[in-house]
Amino acid sequence: MILAALVISVHPLADELAHSPQALDGLSFKSALGPMGQPADTDDLLVFEDGYFVSEECARRCGYAKVEYWVRAHNDGIQMRAEVPCSNSDAVMYWRGTVRGNEIEGSFTWVNRRWYWTFEKEFSFKGRLIETNNR
Q1: E strands within the chain?
Q2: Domain 21-130: CATH architecture, name and number where available
Q3: Contact 88, 72 (CB under 8 A)
Q4: N vs C: which end of the chain shows fewer Cβ within 10 Å?
Q5: Is the model's pLDDT at 59 over the cut of 50?
């Protein structure tokens, strides 16, 4: 597995990161997420497959899409980023995480735009690799 070191910023993603689907493809992480600074209150499954990332719970609850993800090698882990639009509204989630060994940890920003206001909320997540048949 070869990864290039790249500069990363929070938004936008596509212009600044390399899409390297083989880096995390075939991995799934049983995770818990919740509002930043509070206990995680939602179980989730984060799936990396065929160059795409999906939070199964966010897809189920809110119609968030499966999207391409970007990675880079950084110190002792692999950093990932994904920009995930909602198919039911103008909301988008900006995921940022690091995989180290069998664990993933990070955060995402949920941004909901309306003509009269924009709402942003930070969430954190942490998870552990589960066995899959993909690798």
Answers
A1: 27-35, 42-49, 52-55, 67-68, 70-74, 77-85, 92-100, 103-113, 118-130
A2: Beta Barrel (2.40)
A3: no
A4: C
A5: yes
Cα dist. 122→6, 44, 109 in Å?
Answer: 24, 16, 5
Residues pairing with 81 in the sheet: 70, 96
Cα–Cα dist 29/36, whole Å: 19
> Hey, is 29 helix, strand or coil?
strand
Residue 37, classified by CB atoms within 10 Å of its CB into exposed (0-12), middle (13-18) or buried (19+), is exposed
**What is the rounded CA–CA span in Å between residue 113 and residue 102?**
35
pLDDT digits (tens, 9 = 90+) for 1-32: 333 333 333 444 444 455 555 789 999 999 99
Domain positions in the chain: 21-130
76-102: average pLDDT: 92
Is this prediction's pTM over 0.90? no
